[in-house]
Specification:
Largest sheet: 5 strands, parallel
CATH architecture: Alpha-Beta Barrel
Oligomer: single chain
CATH topology: TIM Barrel
Helix content: 40-55%
Length: 444
């Protein structure tokens, strides 16, 4: 009886072991199957996001705003959704940015006289010195003054060669710029060139005909483009609100802000119909000042509300028409900013009023930084960094280019300026340059 009971107990234990074994096998098979499904789903999802094109060519990912564009880190290519969200121009801009050194980026923030980087006097040709200078300092552009411009053939040859050097160095055209307003301020009309004479905008404004302004801009744009220019620092959009103002008295279309807006925008439309970019200047308005920023301090004592009802109207109307360039003057606005900081160096004026309040998304360029209002109060380095901190994109004619350029580089290295801030400006600059390249305006 004892032996029979023992056999029953042993049989039950063996049966229990068999049952447990079967359960373990079934559980293991289910777990393995679930794991296979999970790995398959993960692989498919990763493939959708990060697989390379069937051609085998690697795609270069776009970097986020918070990542340095010079970091060489391993990243997955952008998703299809991210690619679709960018236009062809935006993609090209990001590709160019990702291949630029910090030094190249800093150089692209300046428009200078050719003498500033060549060390020559009164440059009238683009030879080896110009080539070497452009290759070392690939600046955004040149501005030519009357001594640089002797006659038609010389100007065309010089600009054509400059653009050739620029395309070889950067793959992009330079901004070839000039102050050609008509009348009081001209470098070409009325000089040694066989082009139509264009008088002061005050005379044009007195007749109040936007069609005449448009045709005047078209005529000017035609001869500028023919010579090789692609950027004109005109028209003056200042409202002559102070009859004693001698700075823009003959350069302004008049004292009625809405007339000034209509005439300025019509002139700009004519100019740009010929492939030459224009520039509304001098934000926030030089027509109410009594001083001259060429010589030194000049201020406008209006409140912001008063400015909005007069001086800012032409600029606001231009922004509604998506103007590409606005030049900021060195005028101080003590009733707005609370101090004598020039508008060109003021974050409140540029980032808050011009960018945020008025909505300007195009390029902001300073007036010439070698003018008295800046050069007498700030070093070239200090002024360049302050302008970029304020929201400026392009710095025009610093009093000392090399000092200003090194100052920007040092500000980035020390963390005062971020590379992302530099890239914000470069995106605006590169978009316009790509449009010039696409239009063939660099082939001069």
């Amino acid at each position: 009886m004892k032996h029979k009971l023992l056999w029953i107990i042993c049989g039950a234990e063996v049966l229990l072991i068999i049952i447990l074994y079967i359960c373990l096998v079934l559980h293991s098979q289910r777990k393995q199957a679930a794991g296979t499904l999970s790995r398959s789903a993960t692989t498919e999802a990763f493939s959708e996001k990060a697989s390379l094109p069937e051609t085998g060519e690697e795609t270069e990912p776009l970097l986020t705003e918070t990542e340095s564009l010079t970091e060489t880190v391993s990243q997955a290519p952008e998703t299809e959704t991210e690619r679709d969200s960018l236009s062809d121009t935006d993609r090209r801009v990001e590709e160019i940015l990702s291949g630029m050194s910090l030094e190249e980026k800093a150089a692209q923030l300046f428009i200078v006289q050719p003498e500033a980087i060549t060390g020559a006097d009164a440059v009238t040709a683009a030879g080896e010195a110009t080539q070497n200078a452009i290759f070392r300092y690939p600046v955004a552009g040149f501005i030519y003054m009357e001594p640089n411009l002797q006659e038609e053939g010389q100007v065309k040859d010089m600009i054509r060669q400059v653009q050739a050097w620029s395309m070889e160095r950067t793959g992009l055209p330079m901004f070839i710029s000039v102050d050609e307003e008509g009348g009081t301020v001209t470098r070409i009309s009325g000089k040694n060139f066989d082009v139509p004479y264009i008088g002061d905008m005050a005379d044009l404004g007195s007749r109040g005909d936007p069609e005449e302004a448009r045709e005047t801009g078209r005529v000017m744009g035609a001869y500028l483009r023919d010579l090789g220019f692609n950027l004109d620092f005109a028209p003056v959009a200042d409202v002559l609100d102070n009859p004693d103002n001698q700075v823009v008295r003959r350069r302004s279309f008049g004292s009625d802000p809405r007339l000034v807006a209509r005439m300025s925008l019509a002139f700009l439309e004519g100019l740009e119909s010929q492939g030459v970019y224009g520039t509304l200047k001098h934000f926030p308005g030089h027509g109410s000042t009594s001083g001259d920023t060429h010589a030194g301090y000049a201020s406008n004592n209006k409140t912001l509300e008063e400015l909005k009802n007069c001086d800012l109207i032409p600029f606001r109307e231009g922004i509604l028409q998506d103007v590409d360039f606005i030049m900021v003057g060195h005028i101080s606005l003590p009733a707005v900013t609370g101090d004598d900081t020039p508008a060109s160096l003021s974050p409140l004026v540029i980032s808050r009023i011009l960018r945020e309040d008025l909505g300007h998304e195009g390029i902001v360029i300073t007036d010439a930084m070698n003018m008295g209002a800046i050069a007498q109060n700030y070093s070239a380095s200090q002024a360049a960094v302050m302008a970029l901190e304020a929201g400026v994109d392009l710095i025009l004619m610093p009093s000392d280019f090399h000092s200003a350029y090194e100052g920007v580089l040092e500000a980035v290295r020390q963390g005062r300026l971020t590379e992302q801030r530099i890239d914000e400006s470069l995106r605006r600059i590169l978009k316009v340059k790509l449009s010039l390249s696409d239009d063939g305006n660099s082939d001069r």
